[in-house]
Amino acid sequence: MRRTAHGLAVAALAAAALTIAGCGGGSNNAGPTISIDKPKVFSLEDFTPSGPVKPGKQTKVSFTIQQPDGKPLTRYKHGAGPHTGIHLIIVRDDLAGIIHDHPPVGADGKVTQAVTFPAPGRYRVVVDAYPDISPSLRNFQLFHPITVSGPAPRVVLPPFKAVQTVNGYRFAMQGKPALKAIQAGFLKIDVTDPKGKPAHFTPYFGALAHAIFFRQGSLDYFHTHVCAPAAQGCTAVLGGAKVTGTSTPGVLRVGVLVPVPGTWRLFLQTEVAGNVITVPYTLKVGA
């Protein structure tokens, strides 16, 4: 999903706020003053937990998205595809792993999800929302930190590794990626089951595979999907570029479209035989 979508929405709202409030200069002359209101934007309200939490213990993460008009956001897109509702994605700042959920939204707009953090450290919560509002807004992201108490292990990001085996499933990326920022690219990955046969992917949160990208250091975020043939609403957009992942049995063609160059961590998630598998890749993205 597109980090820039939120930036565009905020910029437009900020411009509108300035137009309403007006702009002026100051002087030493006595007279009326003009105040400029803060830009009105979407925001996370009543976020919990409000302090450090314990590792390995179930924690309730909850919040409401407040709209620019001050009202809670209660209407979200829905349907068979992955671009619906709220994607709640939590990543540790060393990119050691992620938590990925699509939590339910209450009638009052409140979102609640039980989360168990595996280890101490600082985490970034990404709330990737698909609102059903007018004027139409594709999606936007909001962020919040969570600290998990205890001495945090430091994980050194490993180099790119084309072939990985997770839970007996072999993921073999074909060729060495040559990726560029803001340019659509593809990663072809062959997947075989523990018997060496092509894996058969089943829908997971509306897609056959999720490609979740975080940039090392800044934790910039992007998210694309691999969908079944003829599936609707699976295209990822960034500026004027678009990308749509595709799949056949045993093959994932993962679309890549990230906003800036750097070292990125791809968490590829897919479901096979009732098991959700997460495969991490370290990718270099050029300018």
Describe this structure in words.
By secondary structure, this protein is mainly beta. The protein folds into two domains: 3-17 and 39-148, Immunoglobulins (Immunoglobulin-like); 163-286, Immunoglobulins (Immunoglobulin-like), CATH 2.60.40. It has one helix and 20 strands. The protein is globular and about 50 Å long. 29% of the residues are buried.
Mean pLDDT across every amino acid position = 85
Oligomer state equals single chain
Structural class: mainly beta
- Tell how many strands the DSSP assignment holds: 20
Tell me what portion of residues adopts beta-strand conformation: 35-45%
* Count of discrete domains: 2
- Radius of gyration, in Å, reads 21 Å
What do we call the CATH homologous superfamily of the largest domain?
Answer: Immunoglobulins
Based on the coordinates given, report the CATH architecture of the largest domain: Sandwich
Largest sheet: 6 strands, mixed
The CATH topology of the largest domain comes to Immunoglobulin-like
- Low-confidence residue ranges: 1-36
Number of helical segments with 4 or more residues: 1
Shape, per Cα inertia axes: globular
The proportion of residues forming helix, as a percent range, comes to under 10%
